């Protein structure tokens, strides 16, 4: 069972908070008048969200040889002369969507349910990791 820590106590004893999480626990922290937040193990959270919110990119090839990659979870797509360019463009669109979601879209009824997928983007440690998550199970982007 968790314990709600006051922000000033968590700040003062942050090494203990960190140790608790490192040993498999979580820390729930609340600043006066704010909603509680949780400090948890990053890898565990990444794995949990990967199971709950998988990405399903769809690769589309045009007659002229160009490629588009559609990501239905966010309703965005990337395009390029080949799969590598389309994938890079899609990552730009995903990152832009996540920024817009943090700013305003999280309040919109048709975007509020995207929280889990946005959280995956937020927890990615760099563009390469995000690429790997989005394209897990896809053929490698070696088109030229």
Q: Would you write up a description of this structure?
A:
There is one protein chain. With 144 residues, this protein is of the alpha+beta class. The protein folds into 2 domains: 4-40, YefM-like domain (YefM-like fold); 53-134, Double Stranded RNA Binding Domain. Helices cover 44% and strands 17% of the residues. The protein contains 6 helices and 6 strands. The strands form 2 sheets. A 3-stranded mixed beta sheet has the order 1-2-3. A hairpin with a 4-residue loop joins strand 5 (67-71) and strand 6. Helix 4 (83-103) crosses helix 5. Mean pLDDT is 92; it is low at 140-144.
Record the SSE blueprint.
Blueprint: E1 4-6, H1 7-12, H2 14-22, E2 27-30, E3 37-39, H3 42-52, E4 58-61, E5 67-71, E6 76-80, H4 83-103, H5 115-123, H6 127-134
Parallel strand pairs: 1-2
Antiparallel strand pairs: 2-3, 4-5, 5-6
Helix pairs in contact: 3-5, 4-5
pLDDT averaged residue by residue: 92
Lateral arrangement of strands in the main beta sheet: 1-2-3
Distance between the termini: 53 Å
Q: Count of helical segments?
A: 6
Which structural class should the secondary elements be placed in? Answer: alpha+beta
The CATH class designation of the largest domain is Alpha Beta
Q: Provide the gyration radius in Å.
A: 19 Å
Question: According to CATH, what is the topology of the largest domain?
Answer: Double Stranded RNA Binding Domain
User: Helical proportion?
Assistant: 40-55%
Into how many domains do the coordinates divide? 2
Major sheet characteristics: 3 strands, mixed
Question: Which residues form runs of ≥5 with pLDDT under 50?
Answer: 140-144
Order of helix and strand elements from N to C terminus: EHHEEHEEEHHH
CATH architecture term of the largest domain: 2-Layer Sandwich
Categorize the overall geometry. elongated
How much of the polypeptide forms β-strand, as a percent range? 15-25%
Q: Kindly state the number of beta strands.
A: 6
């Amino acid at each position: 069972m968790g314990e709600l820590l006051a922000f000033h106590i968590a700040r003062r004893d942050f090494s203990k908070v960190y140790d608790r999480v490192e040993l498999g626990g979580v820390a729930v922290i609340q600043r006066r008048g704010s909603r509680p937040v949780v400090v948890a193990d990053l890898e565990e959270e990444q794995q949990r969200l990967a199971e709950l919110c998988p990405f399903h990119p769809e690769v589309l090839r045009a007659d002229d040889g160009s490629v588009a990659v559609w990501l239905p979870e966010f309703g965005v797509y990337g395009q390029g002369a080949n799969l590598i360019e389309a994938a890079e463009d899609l990552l730009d669109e995903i990152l832009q969507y996540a920024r817009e979601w943090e700013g305003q879209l999280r309040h919109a009824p048709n975007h509020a349910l995207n929280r889990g997928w946005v959280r995956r983007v937020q927890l990615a440690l760099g563009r390469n990791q995000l690429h790997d998550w989005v394209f897990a199970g896809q053929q490698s982007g070696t088109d030229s």
